[in-house]
Amino acid sequence: MPGFFEGLKRMAQGKPVFDSNDAGAGWNDKNGNAHDVAQPEAGQPAPQQQAGQAPQGRANGVVKGQASTFPVVVVKRTRTQVSGNNQAVYCSVVNHSNGPVEVEEIHLAGSSKRLGGYLRAGEEREWLCFSGPRSQSENNKEASLNYKDETGDYFQSIYDVEYEYGSDKLYSVEELHYRAPIRDIYG
């Protein structure tokens, strides 16, 4: 294995830093014996993952980069109570995953609200998700629900917001329409 300056010299010449003719083509053990890291030693098991095999997931079944393995937590129903120029939006959130989740926060109608509750697998619960003035336009057409699983991994479900236009020319939230897929966030 070349030293630092030999490797630098080879890079400057446009040659590969590591050459198969180098002494000690791999790493040396504590006794100074060379081992090729690309080849398993005799008696050592070969790596388990074969080419084309799916990456190993966590104990909860989540595989990074595969949205079909993410826990699904969605807004099932929306109920809006209008009082003059104000509205209170209640959302029924259901956990379709196989494990418990903590529902963190929802972003709806231009504001964020911390929900901070737990849902067991298959459980449904209603939260007050927005309380405030009705809008004069439909400019906040996207909503999101953030939650995490028991391993602390964060996920997000996205929604298209449908508004109802009132006779007083103000908009109130009518429905949230789930837009797949679930997003893996913060990691």
Tell me what the structure shows:
The protein is mainly beta. The chain has 2 domains: 1-47, no CATH class; 67-185, Immunoglobulin-like (Sandwich). It contains 1 helix and 10 strands; from the N terminus they run αββββββββββ. The protein has one helix at 4-13, and strands spanning 27-28, 34-35, 73-83, 86-95, 101-108, 111-119, 124-133, 142-149, 154-165, 171-185. Strands 6-5-8-9-10 form a 5-stranded antiparallel sheet, with no helix packed on it. A 3-stranded antiparallel sheet has the order 3-4-7, with no helix packed on it. Strand 9 and strand 10 form a beta hairpin. The radius of gyration is 27 Å and the shape is elongated. It starts with a helix and ends with a strand. The relative contact order is 0.15. Mean pLDDT is 82; it is low at 35-41 and 44-55.
In short:
The chain is mostly beta strands and 187 residues long. It contains 1 helix and 10 strands; from the N terminus they run H-E-E-E-E-E-E-E-E-E-E.
What's the helix and strand layout?
Blueprint: H1 4-13, E1 27-28, E2 34-35, E3 73-83, E4 86-95, E5 101-108, E6 111-119, E7 124-133, E8 142-149, E9 154-165, E10 171-185
Antiparallel strand pairs: 1-2, 3-4, 4-7, 5-6, 5-8, 8-9, 9-10
